[in-house]
Recover the amino acids of this structure.
């Protein structure tokens, strides 16, 4: 059974940074791409960033390019999301997920979601 556990969320002032972690178990982690999504109250869950199984290729939503960095450590079965220059509009619950489909940017390519970690950015 695949399990994903996110951590690292919290309250931060605008302009600050946070590093999210997602620890995976129950799968051969290095065989799968991984993604980060976020969902704010009243909004749909949206794509943030993704990384291929080797870590060589990364993909970002336009709104976070240049501020967020996704990375992974296959030895630790963990994917990370470094978030810099945070803005109040980045406030959301952030989820990691395993990519099973083709399209890195589509929510439908992902399953095995974690429980999420809350990120709150104050102005």
């Amino acid at each position: 059974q695949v399990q994903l556990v996110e951590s690292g969320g919290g309250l931060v002032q605008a302009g600050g940074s946070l590093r999210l972690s997602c620890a995976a178990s129950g799968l051969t982690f290095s065989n799968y791409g991984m993604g980060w999504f976020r969902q704010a109250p009243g909004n749909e869950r949206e794509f943030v960033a993704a990384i291929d199984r080797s870590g060589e290729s990364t993909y970002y939503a336009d709104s976070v390019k240049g501020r967020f960095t996704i990375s992974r450590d296959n030895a630790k079965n963990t994917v990370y999301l470094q978030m810099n220059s945070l803005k109040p509009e980045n406030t959301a619950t952030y989820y990691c997920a395993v990519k099973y489909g083709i399209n890195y940017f589509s929510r439908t390519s992902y399953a095995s979601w974690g429980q999420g970690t809350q990120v709150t950015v104050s102005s």
Observations:
- The longest strand covers residues 18-25.
- The chain has a mean pLDDT of 97.
